[in-house]
């Protein structure tokens, strides 16, 4: 079973959106497991302090290596085979390929940063892999962890109603997906493209492919230029 452990100062944010819909049903049926660990429980002083001022000065606070290490070592002993991730805007941008890798594995231990981030020594000493959900700054790692887990959980066997729909999504073949239509056949004077109601499956596939290529070239030429683009 895919087991996620999230280390956070806000365990109340979990399961959050992951408690509803597909992911929520899968959680109820033990298709995957989620544990949210309160980092503050691993502070040792009277005030349960988890952060301190940045060495070298400057604004904000930094999460302490010693407190975080105790939380990680408790949640994920050395023998734990799960990857240890740190949600971080400096991380490698999350891709569908990475999501697939994670979904095929035993789970993940996910550290959510707050304030200015975490002490660099903790990242190095506990071998944390930094993962970003995009080039923007969130106020904390929790929404990023929810995003990552949502993407992973929908790929777990038995979670998606229609198993086939997983393979044709945007990014799975290095392209953005073609446009979708459904009834009514005509709406506000706009008709569904003829080819889609032709019943000719070969033509439909060719049209979808051409639309996907056109859309990708317009919106995300970087995907076409990617050297590791899967062969199509
Ligand atoms: N000072 C940091 C930003 C800290 S934001 C910097 O400039 O790089 C606080 C926390 O939110 C981070 O530690 C991280 O855990 C989370 N976070 C913010 N943006 C994120 C993003 N794009 N992807 C993943 N996590 C993010």
Name the features:
single chain, 232 residues, alpha/beta, five-stranded parallel sheet, two-stranded antiparallel sheet, 18% strand, elongated, binds S-adenosyl-L-homocysteine
Structure in words:
- By secondary structure, the protein is of the alpha/beta class.
- The chain contains 7 helices and 9 strands; from the N terminus they run E-H-E-E-E-H-E-H-E-H-E-H-E-E-H-H.
- It has a 5-stranded parallel β-sheet with strand order 2-1-6-5-7, with helices on both faces.
- The longest helix is centred in the last third of the chain and has 19 residues, at 201-219.
- The radius of gyration is 22 Å and the shape is elongated.
- The two termini are 32 Å apart.
- The mean pLDDT is 95.
- The structure holds S-adenosyl-L-homocysteine (SAH).
- S-adenosyl-L-homocysteine binds next to strand 5.
- S-adenosyl-L-homocysteine is lined by residues 87-90, 112-114, 116-117, 132-134, 136-138, 140-141, 144.
Average of per-residue pLDDT values:
95
Largest sheet: 5 strands, parallel
- Ligands and ions found: S-adenosyl-L-homocysteine
Radius of gyration: 22 Å
- Helix/strand/pairing class, anyone? alpha/beta
* Count of extended strands: 9
Termini Cα gap: 32 Å
Overall geometry comes to elongated
Quaternary state reads single chain
